[in-house]
Write a structure and sequence with these properties.
The chain is an alpha/beta fold. It is built from 9 helices and 8 strands. α1 crosses α7, α5 (about 130-145) packs parallel to α6 and α6 (about 170-180) packs across α8 (about 235-250). Pathway: Phospholipid metabolism; CDP-diacylglycerol biosynthesis; CDP-diacylglycerol from sn-glycerol 3-phosphate: step 2/3; Lipid metabolism.
Length: about 290
């Protein structure tokens, strides 16, 4: 039965890829902003059905226009920040609201997915270049000022889905510059109600993960849309710390960002005490 399910799902995936390619190459250029947003949500929901993953959402996006078409009704768009587990995140999050994603540059050269990413306006980051973060932050700021939703993964890499990794604060600066509201969102994948790592990369390639997903019944993703965090007039590190805190609490896991900061402060205090001892030693000898 598992083999039949996998073969059926993979056949649907092949059809899905053709549909997505047709949509982004033929329909997107003529659809307009609202049309592209609606097409994105429709394709995302269809993609999750094809992979056999049920989507459960709690919480709502305050701006109905941003949720429906990916553009704010007025003012800047949302900066959406989410934990990152797998390529499925892109489809799952697009079921909630259309966004421009921030992704590593390598994805642009992937077969099929690279073309789709380019046509859907993904902002690519080259992590080998020093100025890359500044350039990406500027691109994100401009997009949000135009009213677009932008999503990035503050962990900077994929996790297993069992907890959160420490957040990086750099790109939160773009929300401050755009005076954009930050929308924290959490993802948790389950199988028959229990948290699963089956959908995560976990040192596996994309196609292996896809085959496992297609062969496994009972998969679901729980998406929590959390209260908006205001960025205007705040420091990026404070915003980063708050986002990590509320997302960790929502998932019921350790706040890895706070834990890392506590270790940093402890090391700094220890180094300061060591310097004080060095300075006191000559005085005592005198």
């Amino acid at each position: 039965m598992t083999s039949i399910r996998k073969a059926w799902r993979l056949t649907l995936v092949a059809l899905l890829i053709l549909i997505i390619l047709f949509t982004v190459t033929v329909l997107f250029p003529i659809a307009g902003n609202a049309g592209r947003g609606r097409l994105t949500r429709t394709l995302a929901k269809f993609s999750m059905w094809v992979m056999g993953i049920r989507v459960r959402v709690t919480g709502t996006v305050p701006d109905a226009s941003a949720a429906a078409i990916g553009w704010a009704s007025e003012g800047p768009g949302y900066m959406v920040c989410s934990n990152h587990v797998t390529f499925v995140d892109i489809f799952a999050l697009s079921c909630v609201l259309p966004v421009r994603f921030v992704a590593k540059k390598e994805i642009a050269s992937w077969p099929v997915f690279g073309l789709i990413s380019k046509r859907t306006g993904t902002i690519f980051i080259d992590r080998t270049r020093r100025r890359a973060v500044l350039e990406i932050a500027e691109a994100m700021t401009n997009a949000m000022k135009e009213g677009r939703n932008v999503l990035f993964f503050p962990e900077g890499t994929t996790g297993t889905g069992e907890g959160l990794l420490p957040f990086h604060a750099n790109l939160f600066a773009s929300a401050v510059a755009a005076e954009a509201p930050i929308l924290p969102v959490t993802l948790r994948y389950t199988k028959d109600g229990a948290v699963t790592t089956l959908v995560s990369y976990a040192h596996r390639d994309l196609f292996t993960v896809l085959k496992d997903i297609c062969a496994t019944p009972g998969l679901a993703v729980d998406i929590q849309v959390l209260p908006v965090i205001e960025a205007a007039g705040r420091e990026r590190r404070d915003i980063c710390a708050e986002a990590s805190r509320v997302m960790s609490a929502a998932l019921g896991v350790e706040d890895a960002t706070a834990a890392l900061e506590a270790k940093r402060l402890a090391r700094a205090a220890a180094a300061e005490r060591k310097e004080e001892v060095k300075e006191e030693a000559p005085a005592a000898q005198a």
